Amino acid sequence: MADSSFPFDCVLIANRGEIAVRIIGTLRKLGLRSVVVYHEVDARAPAVALADQAIAISGRTPVAAYLDGEQIIAAARSAGAGALHPGYGFLSENAAFARSVEAAGIAFIGPSADAIELMGDKIRARNFVARNEFPVAPSAIEEEDPATFVERARAIGAPLLVKPSAGGGGKGMRIVRDLSGLDDAVAQARSEGQRYFGDGRLYIERFVEQPRHIEVQVLGDAFGNVVHLFERECSVQRRFQKIIEETPSPALSAQTRQKICETAAGIARAAGYRNAGTVEFIYGRGEFYFLEMNTRLQVEHPVTEMITGLDLVAEQIAVAAGRRLPFAQGDVRAHGHAIEARLYAEAPERNFSPTTGKVLALRYPQGEGVRVDSGIAQGQTITTAFDPMLAKIVVHATTRDEAIARARRAIEEFVLLGCETNAAFLARILGDQGFKAGEVHTGYLDENPGIARGGSRDTDAETRLLALAALLTRPVRDAADAVPPLHASLGSWRN
Amino acid sequence: MHHRFDLDGEINELWLSRGPAGYHLQIADGWSGSVALIEERAGHGRLVVDGKSEQVAYVVDGDVVHIHCRGRAYAVRYVDPLLALASASDEAGHNVARAPMPGVVVSVKVTLGDTVAAGAVLMVIESMKLETPIRAPQDGVIERIHVRDGESFDRDAVLATLSQGNG
Question: What is the predicted ipTM?
């Protein structure tokens, strides 16, 4: 159904892979023309084939091409695109890029550059949220008053997390569960901060034991209307890389769910937030704290679409076209349970080492309540040039148990030959008792390394693999065929 | 003579023969039975092992048979006896540094003819956003460098070849 009421008729997608394909799907549905930019290594990718127009871009590396804002804006101009969708990653949270796009007279399908800037600075964002009286983890920042630092930290109460202000990647971080050890922990963290970062200043905050990652989808228009579209739980992750996401979260009571969702909408409203965004929280033992806000479409947005029946990309485009949200909070309803599993080109069994190869066979799972968002096509070569995510398997069912069973079946029916993936690992997570009971947290996979390693193969399966390999290997079959069949020689002997 | 197949780094020996009722498989560990493949369409069919049949998908790519079976993908590699012999003799007196994982060469640290000690850094590669040094597997002289700065490679690719010097 073509919709002539948009102020633009052509949208450029400044992204690649599955999200570019996903956005093209909605553009088609809305009757808008789609243009993608692509680096030559993606020439055989499905987004290039599906888009109405594909414009080659170049760079020192393939990733650099997709980060080259000037080249991308020039492509948008040459294609006559009136709007630009940045997808996720790459330039999606780059305020300067959003400004340049708007300055070129092209609508940026996302929030204002100011909102990107505010939420992109983690300290500023945290202060903004605290100032508006939404929950942030209680903390003590040394710089604010070095003399009272340890005293202020002690007042927060255990458990505490001591970390170097200049730090990252967990270096120099210490957990204090007994306040009598606080002085020692501060001294050690300071010396490590000095050693790793040349900066001994510290920051202490409340440590959440077995934290869960719960985020809330929000959507705002240019008229100050903001709604939330419920939460997503993304606690199954490894080194900040999410693996399985679901909604609703099995951890939240109805009251907490309402509270966390309203908090997210409140933060977005306070920020005058426009378009789709996600407010991330850390949750543990009934308490939740603001972690950060992602000012873009999330990888895991399909689970929200599954339970609400909304098309988030269509809503994003409508907001960018200057329309009002077509519904109020009370109109948004959630139905059933949705789970997304991310298919990565990596081998969990070999310490998550990346894998490469050529897609020799590809067949997606079918059936009711199963959706596959894929960025790969048969014949395509998978390299380590980009993020290793190949596809997302998304399912929807009435209950969580049914969704888990459906996700497992969909993963097992997903045929991808030629490049090793984490599919068996995904199936193991879905079959894990802790996951089934909803008792996961962000450290769960590290605490249960057996899920990544996998079990030994049974000999029955091994026999079948060897049988099929033997039957399909030319020299083996030729050798079998060359020996006269037993019955022939027996026959002549009988004569 | 047995055929050899590599399954997850383990070598399995087997023999396929033809009998009155079709193919018969003998695996070196003792299992034997009838096997058949009924292809239903290209790359899909029913594998029948001792009368029990199940759905499989497969692709043959050179000496590797890719299989989707029981909800999982596997790769089984045929170990060609001639190639195995050739590479064994080719690698005699040589030592190679292989890629532990796919990645990109950040910088090559040695040049042809350099004498290196075991453990010396030959090059730095990047994989999973981490830089990893590739070290000499033993003492030797750099005989060949197979990759250049910026070049990407797959897992197990030969990155450098060392000869064992005369010392």
Answer: 0.86
